[in-house]
Amino acid sequence: MLNHRFLCRNEDLKEMLESNKESLKLEAMKRIVGLIAKGKNASELFPAVVKNVASKNIELKKLVYVYLVRYAEEQQDLALLSISTFQRALKDPNQLIRASALRVLSSIRVPIIVPIMMLAIKEAATDLSPYVRKTAAHAIQKLYSLDPDQKEHLIEVIEKLLKDKSTLVAGSVVMAFEEVCPDRIDLIHKNYRKLCNLLVDVEEWGQVVIIHMLTRYARTQFVSPWREDAMFDENNEKAFYDSEEERKVEQTKPYIMDPDHRLLLRNTKPLLQSRNTAVVMAVSQLYWHLAPKHELSIITKSLVRLLRSHREVQYVVLQNIATMSIQRKGMFEPFMKSFYVRSTDATHIKTLKLEILTNLANEANISTILREFQTYVKSQDKAFAAATIQAIGRCATNISEVTDTCLNGLVLLLSNRDETVVAESVVVIKKLLQTQPSQHSDIIKHMAKLFDNITVPMARASILWLMGEYCEHVPKIAPDVLRKMAKTFTNEEDIVKLQIVNLAAKLYLTNSKQTKLLTQYILNLGKYDQNYDIRDRTRFIRQLIVPNEKSGALSKYARRILMAPKPAPVLQSAFKDRDRFQLGTLSHTLNSQASGYLELSDWPAVAPDQSVRNVEVVEPKFYSDSEEEEEEEEEGSSSEGSSSSSSEESVSESESEENSDDSNKSSSSQSEKSSSESDSEKKKKTLKNKKLQQQKPDILIITYLPPQIMQKTLLLIIMTKYILIHIVLSISTQFFVNCMCSLLHLCVFLACQFDVVSWHVHVSLQASSPVFVPETSHELLHRMTGKGLSAQYRFTRQPCIYGNSMVSLQLTLSNSSDQALENIHISEKSSTGQNIHRFNAIGERHTTKEDEFSVSIQPAVGELLLPITMSEADFTKEQGNTNTSYWHADETPTNRPIHFSVCISRFAGKTVSSGSLVLVSVALKDPDAVITINTEKTVIGSMLLRQFKTALTNSCP
Amino acid sequence: MPVLDITLKDNALIMIHSLFLINNAGDLFLEKHWKSVISRSVCDYFFEAREKAVEPDNVPPVIRTPHHYLINIYREKIFFVSVIQTEVPPLFVIEFLHRVAETFQDYFGECSESTIKDNVVIVYELLEEMLDNGFPLATESNILKELIRPPTILRSMVNTITGSSNVGETLPTGQLSTIPWRRAGVKYTNNEAYFDVVEEIDAILDKSGTTVFAEIQGVIDACVKLSGMPDLTLSFMNPRLLDDVSFHPCVRYKRWESERVISFVPPDGNFQLMSYHISAQNLVAIPVYVKQNISFFETGSSGRLDITVGPKQTMGKTVEGLVVTVHMPKVVLSANLNATQGTYNYDPVTKILVWDIGKLNPQKLPNLKGSLSLQSGAPKPEENPSLNIDLKIQQLAISGLKVNRLDMYGEKYKPFKGVKYVTKAGKFQVRT
Fold it and tell me: What is the DSSP letter of B311?
């Protein structure tokens, strides 16, 4: 009947779905979703539902998606019908539609579409919309669980997405990394600094995942900051790749933290203030596992703050604090009162707080804690009261000063009305007495008196054990107790019976006169007991203590066996070895390894190569910092990062070392890195070595003026490498800038324009640093052409701080229109066939109107050269070396005489991009001039020559 | 790591696999799976633990079953039980589940079984947007509201007639920007920004009225309805008071570090700007004192109760909303009391005595006196029950924290600004 009705209803839904009315279809889908939510089966509607997958109504479509994801696995053939719709949607201009198509496509767990998914993921990973790329990162995990054989391809995608600079993508791709290839730590190296730097701006959930991953990473890459370990490491000789010299230095100098290690600690610290408890916990565990011990205290406050949160949060946080407080009492001691128990706390919260209080107890605070414990013992929650008694026992054993006080307190509890409290006290007293039995025979007597009133088996067994163990201290009472027990033996619980047998045996050995018969009686009772354990024990005891011909040599030692001094039990925390698990993990909470738990490795004895993390550029800063400084740089790594670093290495050994050093410094100090130019100069001075000083890259500053009073300053740093120029743009303002910064890649085809004046100076002076920096700026974009936006650029000949193979430019952007210009970025369509990365800007959706202007930067050849100091002899020698293969010498065909006295001017330089030597000598022999240019770069050589000619010709009066 | 690889392949790695909503009576009324379906029979392990715990608060938040882990939260009489298969930070899941509950509250006004059942389609759409493959996707309420519009009576009527939808067609702008909490193009005719400084006193007082432990926990709730992209700066007269703070992601931490001002681009609407803590080291003013005497007689199965509440350090303000709650021992059957002010109620099932006093009049102190009758034959309770106090003081931040000024940059209009202070009792307990 019910079934029939259900079928009818489904028929009805089917009809609605097949109708032409959108509203009916929607209504039907809503009801179907209701069925799914209740866990009812709606799979037979699949054919009717799947037809609507291409519906124009977006809500209907979404509900169909919900349905598809739920049932596609069961109806694989039919599900395939919908695939083409998704494939079409993947090309939709609306990013939301592209993204949701990918989400659904990847959620349909049908193995046959694996290749389609793979293709879709690869495409989406290069999508212009970061939201779609984020979805792609999620899809990676889905595909991986559907078909693990795709691992290699997926790793490629992950590698690509890890380079993504969008904060939106970072968390998701790290998640994919953790799931697909957590062991491929090498993929992280180049992205490490970027991840550290953008961490603050990643969404909260991504932060948690990234922090956990970075914790693991750091444990494999840095040496231990914990002093003892550092000492130990010094003796390790594994540093085979270090030069002899370096190792010596390392052995003598104290531990110095890797700047990258510091970077991670510094950048995660602000997140302790996050409202998301999971983030706070993640940072806390990172500090716990990575920070030097003396820096640990900063996490305490934040953890204590979390105790104000929901019950479930408290539970997890308290567990972690419990583990921490065992190793480091000092951290939480000042906050001891925050762990005081309230009667309204849930039982598991109470127990955890008790645990922590016990861990925190020391000589100084024990009296306060014991007073607090007294309140707890009286609690209505008897399980909690029992736990408190155990805690008192632990305090008593750990702190010898209070052992007696505790013991007396516990004895008082023996007269408590509640049985569980009494029983627990007995058990704890038994443990305490074991540590110093001789002084406490009166307590034992007292307990013997109470014995008749105690019914809890564990407590009775404990008292009996005490009697037997210390029967010599209570010679009169013990046999009497045994007499009573003989009477009630058959009614006792098993553990009590075992202890009766035990007591009997011990008394038999010490006081056989009084107890021989009693013992035999009890052994007989035990022999026929229902429990085999007791029968076995009885048999064993009888053989042991009653000598006969069968028992052999063992009975001689019976006394020594039974009455051997027993070590006192150690009362310790249940959280004692929880720290084998990474804090904050599920495994830690459960105290057992959950599947998929990734072990935290030990610190390496010697730090692996640090330079693996070097990248030429440092990372963008977003919202969180936009207020910080007057001006800021925003940088992005380029796809050419790897190639440029390799070229650096090829220069010379010493140089590459210095370089990497530099980039280390520059990246780690990037937050301080200057906003103002003068500042940056200062910075650079400390960085550069002799050779770097000779660089003359330029820094360009872009000023962007919206119509309002506010001024937004953009600092652009342009780095040249070969003829490829990367522009990195950063915005900083006193006010918030909505049009967020962008990372721009500009490919500029270089045309040459000779800058006469400056060139002359260089030639004649052979200066090692630019002596003259022209003030003239060149126009990049006129305000008429740029519809209000004008741009100018000039070469400032400052050393480029981002790499020695780059040239800095200063760009000035100004807005002369009466409208705010947003989202200025460079989208370069280059005709040169060079590497082009079209940048998609944030906030592109607001732009109602888009204007595009093509511009070109035309640096003089001279701007691409760096002067070098070189002796005349070397100059001639080098000239001789390169002469044979590549040299361009020419006599100027000047028609007019030049009025110079005879002299030879020499200029030595190298190209910025590749460091190839360029030697120029100009011999002026009135009226002729001989220009010799030696370089292996033929193009540069010929361009230089041409410009020299023009210059010399024009400069003639 | 070959071993690792195998485990990876065996398990569908996913953070949150499924979600079950279970009411207090143990009925499972909603299920949602983000991956293959997990049979609802997995909840049997939860029911087992639920039974063992007696009180819903005592259910362990993390439950291990042979193949899964159940992480649950209990909120508004609903258990949110999530199914986890592999290692995941438990707080990650717990925090997310609370975020789900908050979103429901935000959307439907309250988070209850009936509202969830009534809005099951929106609930499903929300859950679909909030998690993708078990990983949180969009949890900011501003973004969600652009994707899925909250229900209103008018809209649902219009929708039924026209068949138009509740679902946004474009990607919320916040999702792409670095300020995901704010949507673009906000417009108001009245631009206003209100801040509520709410402080709660957590305290434990002992029998004699001595403070065992006291601290102040504060939050600043904001309701900001400003057009465009305002950039606000909130400063305090005495920021050094704040011992520990946590911020909404919109707050620029470094400005706080260096200048002790709160600088932020606010989300649109209601949100919690920050929470703070004023440490136990500072002297905390305790606004009321309680004189109480609860005793149980050895014979006759009865007891006596006498409670008086009076003002202590109220800074000249009136104490309102005063409520005294007593968790009586199990053996107390009924109470025959007389209140000089307010009403009292004793629930013999939960054993909770609630005395609702209302406004505290310093001239005439409220008193509750009378006898308690106990279960006959039962031993007299060991411990006297502790009292929980609830109170409210308007226009006062008990810590003395004061907002100095609020400045706005980035927009030209003049907003209407307001700050309100209120002090409440948090976990305020008097031991007897």
Answer: E
Chain A environment of B57 (Cβ under 8 Å)? 311, 346
CB A806 within 8 A of CB A700: no
**Interface membership of B330 toward A (CB under 8 Å):** yes
Q: Which residues have a Cβ under 8 Å from the Cβ of A669 and sit 6 or more positions away?
A: A683
Looking at the complex, does the CB of residue B132 fall below 8 Å from at least one CB of chain A? yes
Contact A86, A139 (CB under 8 A): no
Beta strand pairing status for B192-205 and B416-430?
parallel
Is the Cβ pair B176, A130 closer than 8 Å?
yes
What is the SS3 assignment for B353-410? EEEEEECCCCCCCCEEEEEEEECCCCCCCCCCCCEEEEEEEECCCCCCCCEEEEEEEC
DSSP A257-282: --HHHHHHHHHHGGGGGBS-HHHHHH
Residue A563 is which amino acid?
A: M
B120, B136, B231: residue with CB nearest A205: B136
In terms of average pLDDT, the best of A484-488, A886-890, B321-325 is: B321-325
Tell whether the model's pLDDT for residue A225 goes beyond 50: yes
Please name the member of A37, A380, A592 whose beta carbon is closest to the beta carbon of B30: A37
Residues in chain A within 8 Å Cβ distance of B53: 347
When comparing pLDDT for A894 and B332, which is higher?
Answer: B332
pLDDT on residue A805: 57
* Residues of chain A contacting residue B7, judged by C-beta atoms under 8 Å apart: 595-596
Is residue A470 a contact partner of residue A437, using CB atoms and an 8 Å limit? yes
CA distance B105 to B116: 10
pLDDT at A957: 43
pLDDT single digits (tens) A832-845 = 433 333 333 433 33
CA distance A592 to A594: 6
Q: Say whether A416 and B166 touch across the interface (CB within 8 A).
A: no
* Smallest Cα distance from B178 to chain A, Å: 6
Token look-up 């953008």 returns A198
pLDDT cut 70: percent of chain B above it: 89
How far does the CA of residue A214 sit from the closest CA of chain B (Å)?
A: 15
- Among candidates A168, A270, A347 on the partner chain, residue whose Cβ is nearest the Cβ of B176: A168
Contacts of residue A811, defined as CB under 8 A and 6 or more positions apart, other chains included, come to A700, A701, A702, A716, A718, A727, A780, A791, A792, A793
- Chain A residues close to B75, C-beta within 8 Å: 310
Average pLDDT over residues A698-719: 30
Kindly report the pTM of this predicted structure. 0.70
Q: Do A275 and B204 touch (CB under 8 A)?
A: no
Residues of chain B with confidence (pLDDT) below 70: 1-14, 152-178, 279-282
- State whether B253 and A270 contact (CB < 8 Å): yes
Whether B174 and B183 have beta carbons less than 8 Å apart is answered as yes
Q: In the structure, what pLDDT confidence band is assigned to residue A514 with cuts at 50, 70 and 90?
A: confident
> For A150, which residue in chain B has the nearest alpha carbon?
B9
Average pLDDT for residues A165-183, to the nearest whole number?
A: 87
CB B32 within 8 A of CB A165: no
Tell me: the pLDDT tens digits for B249-302? 888 888 888 888 999 999 888 888 999 888 656 678 888 989 888 888 877 778
CA nearest B73: which of B48, B52, B90? B90
- pLDDT score of B153: 58
Please write the tens of the pLDDT for every residue from A371-391: 889 888 888 888 888 889 989
Closest-CA distance, A861 to chain B, in angstroms, reads 40
Measured between alpha carbons, how far is residue A598 from residues A152, A321, A583, A916 in Å? Answer: 20, 21, 12, 48
Residues 167-206 of B with CB under 8 A from A: 167-171, 173, 175-180, 184-185, 202, 204, 206
Higher pLDDT among residues B219 and A856, named by residue:
B219
Which residues on A lie below 8 Å from B213 (Cβ)? 337-338, 340
